[in-house]
Specification:
Blueprint: E1 2-5, E2 10-11, H1 12-20, H2 24-32, E3 37-38, E4 41-42, E5 49-50, E6 55-58, H3 61-64, E7 76-79, E8 83-88, H4 101-109, E9 114-115, E10 124-130, H5 133-144, E11 148-157, E12 164-167, E13 178-185, E14 189-196, H6 203-210, H7 229-232, E15 239-248, E16 253-258, H8 263-271
Parallel strand pairs: 10-15
Antiparallel strand pairs: 1-6, 2-5, 3-4, 3-6, 7-8, 8-10, 9-10, 11-14, 11-15, 12-13, 13-14, 15-16
Helix pairs in contact: 1-2
Length: about 280
């Protein structure tokens, strides 16, 4: 992180543009990553008014240049005549947009590919696709009937004092249930395994925040003020879809799909002595 001191009142976008000698568009893109800190607080409003003496921390610009993440054969975790499971990287949307996982997979495997579910842009792990609309409908029914087991791992703030916790906090006035299992802890962090029984938007992130264990790197439900340089270096929420299991409606057998722990997870766990 590069630390810069503000010499006179100015908006954040203009300050970054002038300080780094980049266009205001690139400055806005950098701010949109939500990895800019002002006086230790995460700020992502381009028009935010800086005052003389404010300290602005900016990640290395080389790592923040917007580029397309390429989905290839190497991302395929499982494939049969009906579905494809992709190991989704961070910072790429699941569907509906140009260069999304769905969009790229259609170019790789055919135009009838359709996402059965979604993961947040920053969340990594297993993403399931159908090879036709009729297959999509059948698997969507499995989802709605809760016949697909979804398991995630997350790294959170604070030491957990429980081995298992069931969270039933509603989201958008709808029932939501998560089962949280503590895998490993130290004085400041916890590594969790989470099974979700419902699929509400941002469910795991909201539920972990509600019990006092927001996910490391979560810009929406996590801590706003961060002092630790290790935490400031985390570019995304450390949430990973690790396992999907279900009874295959066409092949008539149980299928278990696993995704390995991502590199940035391992790096953080190593830095905080949780690996």
């Amino acid at each position: 992180m590069e630390k810069l001191i503000v010499e006179k009142p100015i908006d954040l976008k203009s300050f970054i543009s002038k300080s780094l000698n980049i266009s205001k568009t690139k400055s806005k893109n950098l701010i949109d990553t939500k990895n800019i800190f002002v006086n230790g607080k995460r700020v992502w409003i381009a028009t935010y008014k800086l005052q003389k003496g404010d300290i602005v921390e900016i990640p290395e610009i080389k790592k923040e240049v917007k580029k397309t993440t390429i989905i290839s054969q190497n991302n395929i975790l499982y494939e049969d005549d009906f579905i494809i499971a992709i190991d989704k990287p961070a910072f790429i949307v699941s569907e509906s947009k140009r260069d999304s996982v769905e969009d790229q997979l259609r170019k790789l495997k055919g135009k009838n590919i359709k996402a059965i579910h979604r993961l947040d842009k920053e969340t990594t792990g297993i993403l399931l696709f159908a090879k036709s609309f009729s297959i999509f409908e059948r698997f969507k029914k499995l989802w709605e009937e809760k016949n697909i087991k979804k398991e995630y791992i997350a790294i959170s703030h604070k030491k957990a004092e429980f081995k298992k916790k069931i969270i039933n906090f509603p989201i958008d006035n709808k029932y939501a249930k998560s089962e949280v299992f503590t895998i490993k802890t130290n004085k400041f962090y916890s590594l969790f395994k989470i099974n979700i029984k419902t699929g509400r938007k941002h469910q795991i992130r909201i539920h972990l925040s509600k019990i006092g264990h927001p996910i490391i790197g979560d810009k929406d439900y996590g801590y706003k003020y961060i002092d630790d340089p290790i935490l400031k270096s985390v570019k995304r929420q450390l949430l990973h879809s690790s396992t999907l299991s279900f009874f295959h409606p066409y092949l008539k057998k149980k299928v278990i799909i696993n995704s390995p722990i991502p590199k940035d997870f391992k790096e953080f766990l190593r830095k905080v002595n949780l690996l």
